[in-house]
Specification:
Layout lengths: L10 H10 L7 H17 L1 H27 L1
Helix pairs in contact: 2-3
Length: about 70
């Protein structure tokens, strides 16, 4: 079994992480590992990292639009 720990985050940091989630059930662990992956890619291949971030941004915006449509119905 994986070791698990607790970390303290400010409410602002938590809100920023929530905004970066691609889907509602994405864990903070998954999200932080995704950010580490993007940072590592950025060091080696900045253009590839830029494309990853653009795609991530599109998916997040799509999620927000879908949520708004669901609330409107």
């Amino acid at each position: 079994m994986e070791n698990i720990t607790t970390i303290k985050l400010s409410t602002e940091t938590k809100a920023r992480l929530e905004h970066l989630k691609e889907y509602d059930r994405e864990t903070y662990n998954e999200l932080i590992n995704k950010l580490f992956y993007i940072l590592n890619v950025c060091r080696k291949e900045p253009l590839k990292a830029q494309k990853i971030l653009e795609n991530l941004d599109k998916r997040i915006k799509r999620k927000i639009i879908i949520k708004k449509k669901i609330k409107a119905d």
